């Protein structure tokens, strides 16, 4: 017979008795995300996990945390379910021009694999609205409901033939290092297509042995133009708004780079990206 003993949050985090009862850790509960009561917290988290950190450590007139404390962020996502969004350590506190406390933090690396993946069940006592609590006060009542295989933003790699993503999505994938995408692209060479959706102009590029597909696309997430001469002519805001990335062809890591070059040239000819209206210079 299966053991139905509830798995509690500390079965994952393994805080010691001193950490549960002392000043090292605090739990920060976010009951509502922003002023819009109808705001979907999961949609917001998918769009920008840093938004969750902003709500975790928003400005206050009085210090809620001390330097050296670790803050466990839980955001209510509906009913008695909460999402473990972040666990950070406070590394600095400054005052802004209004005299409010601004917190500087860094992730507690040992728990990073749980961020955005652990859903817990916690029934907050009626009338209890304190946002910052000691772990010992609530951990015994927090059960693990689900540990997702991937974070909420990573909905799974769709397959090479089905990739069409905006710059914003590309940056999200790279910044959060979605495992399904990283696994699919890190060891693959290939040919990709970038399209300016406002004009229809296109650029054909390659990912060869010097970078592979993941590293090549990561350069676009960082610089927007990826070092391409023609793309450097565009304003960053235009690339962010109008450009999209697709995969035309993939090859495994053993494929010779000469073959990759030939396939890149073929695709440029096939899609006429070297002529008028195209974004390839050669």
Structure characterization notes:
This is GIY-YIG nuclease family protein. The chain is α+β, with helices and mostly antiparallel strands and 282 residues long. The chain has 2 domains: 138 residues, no CATH class; 112 residues, GIY-YIG endonuclease, CATH 3.40.1440. The protein contains 10 helices and 11 strands. The radius of gyration is 23 Å and the shape is elongated. It is 28% helix and 27% strand. A hairpin with a 2-residue loop joins strand 2 and strand 3. The mean pLDDT is 89.
How many angstroms does the end-to-end distance come to?
Answer: 67 Å
Count structural domains. Answer: 2
What would the average pLDDT be, to the nearest integer? 89
Q: Find the structural class using helix and strand composition.
A: alpha+beta
* Sheet of most strands: 7 strands, mixed
DSSP, total strands: 11
Proportion in helices: 25-40%
Order of helices and strands: HHEHHEEEEEHEEHHEEHHEH
Number of contiguous helices:
10
The oligomeric state is single chain
Uncertain ranges: none
Shape: elongated
Strand content: 25-35%
How large is the radius of gyration? 23 Å
Secondary structure layout:
Layout: H1 10-13, H2 17-21, E1 25-30, H3 41-47, H4 49-56, E2 70-78, E3 81-95, E4 101-107, E5 118-121, E6 132-133, H5 135-138, E7 143-147, E8 164-166, H6 167-175, H7 179-185, E9 188-196, E10 202-207, H8 212-223, H9 236-242, E11 243-252, H10 257-271
Parallel strand pairs: 1-2
Antiparallel strand pairs: 1-6, 2-3, 3-4, 3-5, 5-7, 8-11, 9-10, 9-11
Protein name: GIY-YIG nuclease family protein
Organism: Microcella frigidaquae
């Amino acid at each position: 017979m299966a053991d139905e003993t509830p798995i509690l949050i500390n079965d994952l985090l393994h805080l010691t008795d001193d950490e549960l009862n002392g000043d090292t850790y605090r739990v920060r509960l976010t009951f509502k995300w922003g002023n819009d009561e109808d705001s979907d917290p999961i949609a917001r988290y998918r769009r920008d996990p840093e938004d969750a950190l902003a709500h975790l450590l928003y400005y206050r007139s009085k210090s809620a945390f001390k330097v050296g404390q670790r803050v466990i962020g839980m955001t209510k996502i509906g009913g008695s379910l909460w999402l473990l969004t972040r666990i950070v350590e406070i590394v600095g506190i400054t005052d802004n021009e209004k005299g409010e406390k601004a917190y500087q933090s860094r992730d507690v690396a040992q728990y990073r694999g749980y961020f955005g993946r652990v859903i817990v069940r916690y029934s907050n006592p009626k009338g209890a609205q304190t946002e910052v609590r000691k772990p010992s006060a609530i951990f015994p009542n927090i059960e693990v409901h689900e540990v997702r295989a991937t974070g909420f933003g990573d909905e799974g790699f769709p397959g090479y033939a089905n990739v069409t993503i905006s710059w914003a999505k590309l940056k999200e994938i790279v910044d959060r290092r979605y495992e399904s995408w990283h696994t699919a692209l890190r060891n693959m060479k290939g040919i990709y297509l970038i399209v300016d959706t406002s004009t229809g102009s296109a650029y054909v590029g390659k990912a060869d042995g010097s970078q592979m597909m993941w590293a090549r696309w990561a350069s676009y997430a960082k610089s927007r133009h990826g070092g391409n001469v023609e793309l450097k002519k565009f304003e960053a805001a235009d690339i962010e708004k109008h450009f999209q990335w697709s995969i035309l062809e993939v090859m495994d890591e053993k494929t010779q780079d000469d073959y990759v070059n030939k396939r890149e040239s073929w695709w440029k000819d096939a899609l006429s990206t070297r002529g008028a209206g195209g974004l390839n210079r050669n």
